[in-house]
Amino acid sequence: MPGHRLLHVVGTGASSTVWAGEDAAGHPVAVKVPHDVPAVAPDEALERHVLMAVRHDHLVRLRDVVVLADGRVALVFDLHRGARLDSLVGRRGHLRPGEVVTVLTPVAQAVDALHAAGGVHGDVSAPNVMVGPTGRPTLLDLGAARLVGGGPGEIVGTPGFTAPEVRRGEAPGPRSDVYSLGAIAWFCVTGNGAPDPVGRLDPAVVESHVGPELAGLVAACIDPDPTRRPSAAELARLVFDCAAAEPVEVVLGDDDDASALTHRIRAHAAQDPPPAPAGPRRGRLGRLGSAFGSAPGRLGSAVGRRVLGRTGRSRFHGRPLVARVALVAAAVVLLLAVGVGLQRVLTADARPTGATEGEARPSPPPSRAPGGATSPSTGPDATAPQAGTRSGDALLTDATGPVRDPAAVVLALSTRRARALTARDPNRLATASRPRSPAWEADAAVVERLRSTRVRWSGLVPEVQSARVVGRADPDRVVVRARVSFPAYLEIDRAGVSRLRPADPGTPLDLVLLRQPEGWRVEAVSPPSAS
């Protein structure tokens, strides 16, 4: 093959053969050679070259596109070695929730990078995820992006991981990739592909299969209605927040390594009847006041929101690139800069807090700072790095805690409160606010409304953007002016319908903190007073 030397076959599928080889410089590559000459649309060559510009540390790199003498088009990828995720789960039976976080967070971020460039993967599946010897995941096989939008009734994807709308013959879109990510989470915990129910699954059924940590996000991802699914970026944050990440125990087998590059199953679309039209929306949770201003962010209107409109039929749907910062699993900072049809990538290596040498651990998605990093206020109105809740909890019992590090104290109290609201447990409110105080009464009303309407929240994670002491009448009473934001999270109604609640940047509020025998607690919250 021009410019490359093919060494040996590492896998053969229905549509192509994958070779291990070397490029002209001797770098190891995987070369995917189709069996047949495809009918290439005029814009597909351009689309592949756009894909070559996408860079993410957990997305296989498409290095080259080579047209062979007989007209076949070979795709040249970086060669990755390790265990295929489907093989790994098959040998172990299932992964722990923390391992799912380590695998799925960076893979979702990689899918988001592809979507940001206007692409759609089209075959996100366990066989197309390679887990390296250190537990580092990589999403493989960008060849599906070349095949989406094929003839009517043609399915491109892997059974158990393909979205229902794609199985019905629709072209893959960003939300079908998100369905596949949810199916991967289901597979990692159960060992089976996602179920194929006629309608939306009961949340209790989902939880009985995948456990409470993953139930909310999995249900949202595999929702039959694509518009109800989160985006890949939102999913990455939800996964990261659902459980503490832990290293993946990798078990290698003889069928692993580069054979995982491609796992393509093609079949004619099943003649399933069209799904019944969605019924009327359930009543939404009404206006809920809250002690921390309006929590989360603006809990004053707990109204769900569809975050994106209809999925486009083109895999390169013209979505504009936006400037964003993505933190990836090996703690590599990826800058996706604005470009014309392409992405420019800047990376810098860093080791995540708590990771040992050789272990791959996910770093927080863009809206999160690494847990455990603490920093005291450095000025009268210091912007607050996200203080770790462990150090914040210690400061709650320190007589000078709010003065020493107001951001850490506010984050610790806000996190405790978020956990109480998520659990809908009024007894836990006392860990954040003084019982029977104005703050406690307001949050107790929120909990009661959640319980009575059978609505619950998932992925509620506060972030302190700023905090400073503005008053101290006596040693046991401190007023902290803080702005607490909340990234997007899930709202799940009594029918199990998951809606993505929008992020809220928060607004500055004055928190009156009183020192109690058990530590500092919130007494009241009010708009900032003149100071």
Key terms for this structure?
3 domains, 20 strands, Phosphorylase Kinase, domain 1, four-stranded antiparallel β-sheet, 12 helices, alpha+beta, 531 residues
Summarize the structure in words.
- The model is unreliable at 146-153, 256-357 and 367-390 (pLDDT under 50).
- Strand 2 and strand 3 form a beta hairpin.
- It is elongated and about 85 Å long.
- The protein has a 5-stranded antiparallel sheet. The chain has a 4-stranded antiparallel sheet with strand order 15-16-19-20. It has a 3-stranded antiparallel sheet with strand order 6-7-8.
- It starts with a strand and ends in a 5-residue tail after the last strand.
- The protein is α+β, with helices and mostly antiparallel strands.
- It has helices at 44-53, 85-92, 97-116, 164-167, 174-190, 203-210, 212-221, 232-242, 389-396, 401-404, 406-423, 438-453, and strands at residues 4-12, 16-23, 28-34, 62-67, 73-78, 83-84, 129-131, 137-139, 154-157, 265-268, 324-327, 332-337, 344-349, 456-458, 463-474, 477-485, 489-492, 498-501, 509-516, 519-526.
Structural topology:
Blueprint: E1 4-12, E2 16-23, E3 28-34, H1 44-53, E4 62-67, E5 73-78, E6 83-84, H2 85-92, H3 97-116, E7 129-131, E8 137-139, E9 154-157, H4 164-167, H5 174-190, H6 203-210, H7 212-221, H8 232-242, E10 265-268, E11 324-327, E12 332-337, E13 344-349, H9 389-396, H10 401-404, H11 406-423, H12 438-453, E14 456-458, E15 463-474, E16 477-485, E17 489-492, E18 498-501, E19 509-516, E20 519-526
Antiparallel strand pairs: 1-2, 2-3, 3-5, 4-5, 6-7, 7-8, 9-10, 11-12, 12-13, 14-17, 15-16, 16-19, 17-18, 19-20
Helix pairs in contact: 3-5, 3-8, 5-7, 6-7, 7-8, 9-11
